[in-house]
Design goal:
The chain has eleven helices and 19 strands. With 414 residues, it is an alpha/beta fold. It has a six-stranded mixed sheet with strand order 11-6-1-2-3-19. Strands 14-13-12-17-18 form a five-stranded mixed sheet, sandwiched between helices. Helix 1 crosses helix 3.
Length: 414
């Protein structure tokens, strides 16, 4: 298949999830501020558990298939992307960086901010842990506090309060390795909740104070914002698949039937819930289903409140809770969250875009779309040839691949 050169900048978001890998390709032409969705791809993933790689072959294959579908739809060769990194090993901590910026009368420039942020990364970490991201929360200049942007101001001592996100190095390397197998270069690794926030959390909500709750299949990613800054991230080792498992056990039925019940579930369900799986019809008591789902949701939001308690934000976020991810499609979940968290709650609304936007309109594509928007920002800050578009070497030509991998990827990227 012919892959065209790029006369304009384009960007790729790759959501490597436990249940599936989703890819969104967008581009922005000169003079336009809104990206156009030009490619979408998805493929089931059987190589991850709780957000981390446990099977390199299957993970790489899922990435490759999702990229292939997005390439076919967009006509572009994908060789780099911004992708997510998931798992309960991800943690965040507060840090402070202090630097001397020059003699009296020195005007603060971007290089000074970069040095201060670099100083904030000097923290004690175990040898198997690395920094993913450093997010400034505010600056001090010669004792003046709560400065949002000190550029252009005059001073000699610059301090930054920052939030530092870290991850276990082996998990980072395994994810990168899975990408390398498909000849994809990870431009940046981002926590899913931060990508979701980029897609659905507006500046006003972040300023007022809000929590992103990204409900995936096996994990729930949280990001808390207040006064416009990131305050806290957490990854909970539970997700919508746990609701399915609870239903399978409680209703004494198969997983595929339990999944169908979950999708059919409504907080205002009738006395009976009927689902058709294959050629067989299954009927369950609506009240029993309600009890099972509610018990799990109550546990989930109690855990979310536990994270808010750590930072003193229980019922203290005027912007409320914004729910996204595949699990946010569960009927009545926003109302349940509102009652449990004692906060306003709503489903995340995606920004208006043109092109294949109808294919990414569901909550499960929020992370992939946010990753694409973050990648676009990176592309816009570099030259137009950030994505080279050069023809890839056939996968079988990679000398480092084992014979097992060679059997999996019996195709060329053409």
């Amino acid at each position: 298949m012919f892959m065209q050169d790029q006369p304009f900048k384009y960007a790729v978001g790759l959501d490597v999830g436990t249940a599936s890998v989703k890819c969104v390709v967008g581009h922005i032409e000169e003079g336009s501020a809104i990206p156009t969705i030009v490619g979408v791809g998805a493929h089931p993933n059987h190589g991850m558990r709780k957000g981390v790689v446990v099977d390199m072959v299957n993970t790489a294959q899922a990435i490759d298939k999702a990229l292939e579908a997005a390439e076919r739809a967009s006509g572009y060769r994908i060789d780099a992307a911004t992708l997510n990194i998931n798992g309960s090993h991800i943690t965040g901590m507060a840090s402070r960086g202090v630097v001397a910026v020059g003699p009296a009368g020195h005007e603060i420039v971007s290089e000074d901010l970069a040095r201060a942020e670099e100083a904030a990364t000097v923290v004690q970490l175990p040898p198997n842990r690395e920094i993913l991201e450093v997010t400034p929360q505010g600056y001090q200049l010669d004792g003046q506090e709560k400065i949002k942007d000190p550029l252009g101001m005059v001073g000699v001592r610059l301090e930054v309060d920052a939030y530092v996100i870290t991850a276990l190095t082996p998990y980072v390397k395994n994810l990168r390795r899975a990408c390398e197998i498909t000849q994809l270069s990870p431009r940046r690794l981002v926590v899913p909740s931060l990508a979701a926030a980029r897609a659905v959390l507006g500046e006003q909500l972040a300023e007022n104070g809000a929590i992103i709750i990204d409900i995936g299949g096996s994990t729930i990613n949280l990001a808390v914002y207040d006064e416009g800054d990131l305050q806290h991230v957490a990854v909970l080792p539970v997700g919508s698949a746990n609701i399915t498992n609870d239903l399978a056990i409680g209703l004494k039925t198969d997983i595929d039937v339990a999944e169908a019940v979950k999708l059919q579930y409504s907080a205002k369900a009738s006395s009976k819930i009927t689902v058709q799986v294959g050629d067989k019809k299954h009927v369950f008591d609506g009240e029993e289903v309600e009890d099972i789902v509610s018990a799990r949701l109550e546990e989930i939001f109690e855990t979310v409140n536990g994270e808010l308690k750590k930072i003193g934000r229980v019922a203290k976020l005027p912007g409320g809770a914004v729910l996204c991810g595949g699990g946010a499609a569960l009927s009545g979940i926003a109302e349940f969250a509102k009652n449990q968290l004692l906060l306003p709650a709503r489903l995340g609304r995606l920004p208006a875009m043109s092109g294949l936007s109808d294919q990414v309109s569901s909550p499960e594509y929020v992370t992939a779309l946010g990753l694409m928007l973050l990648d676009l920002e990176s592309v816009q800050s570099t030259s137009a040839d950030a994505h080279s578009g050069a023809i890839k070497t056939p996968l079988l030509a990679i000398n480092q691949l084992s014979s097992k991998l060679g059997k999996v990827f019996k195709k060329f990227k053409v």
